[in-house]
Write a structure and sequence with these properties.
Strand 4 and strand 5 form a beta hairpin. By secondary structure, the protein is an alpha+beta fold. The longest helix has 17 residues. Bound molecules: nickel (II) ion. Nickel (II) ion binds next to strand 2.
Length: 138
C-alpha cells in the first residue's frame, strides 16, 4: 500500500525581503515590515514527507533515524541560527521567501532520499509562522 511518512524538524533563522533594484522606501512599500533593514527572525517548522510501498515484509518506508540525520546534515545544519540573506550558499542569489527556501530544500533532499530503494520525496512544507506555510511537490 502506498504510504506517506512525515518528519518534522525545526530551525530558526533571520532574513529580510528586499530587492536590490528598489530604494529602501520602495522595498518597505512592497514587503512591509519584512523589508526592515536590520533583518528579523522566524522559528521555522519543516515537514518532509516521503512516500513508498509498505507491506508485511517492508513495514517501514525509511528508517526514521536515517531520515532525521539526512535532514539535519543537509538542511538544518546549513540554516539553523543563520541569516538566510547572508550566510546560506544556496540562497545567495535568491529572495529569502518561504516559497523559494522550500523549493531549495526540496532540491537538496530529493537525490539523497531517493537513493534509498523504494523511497520517493513527496513534499516539503515549510511553515514560517503558525498561519503561513509553503509546500513544494517538486
Ligand atoms: Ni519574515
Amino acid at each position: 500500500m502506498l504510504t506517506f511518512l512525515t518528519r518534522r524538524e525545526r530551525f530558526n533563522a533571520a532574513h529580510r525581503m528586499y530587492r536590490q533594484d528598489l530604494t529602501e522606501e520602495e522595498n518597505l512599500k512592497m514587503f512591509g515590515k519584512c523589508a526592515n533593514p536590520n533583518y528579523h527572525g522566524h522559528n521555522y517548522d519543516l515537514f518532509v514527507t516521503v512516500k513508498g510501498e509498505v507491506n508485511p515484509e517492508r513495514p517501514y518506508i525509511i528508517d526514521l533515524k536515517e531520515l532525521k540525520v539526512i535532514i539535519n546534515d543537509l538542511v538544518i545544519e546549513k540554516l539553523d541560527h543563520k541569516n538566510l540573506n547572508l550566510d546560506v550558499d544556496f540562497m545567495a542569489d535568491k529572495m529569502a521567501s518561504t516559497e523559494l527556501l522550500c523549493v531549495e530544500i526540496f532540491k537538496l533532499l530529493q537525490g539523497p532520499l531517493e537513493a534509498y530503494e523504494g523511497v520517493f520525496l513527496h513534499s516539503v512544507r515549510l511553515a514560517e509562522t503558525e498561519n503561513n506555510s509553503a509546500e513544494c511537490f517538486g
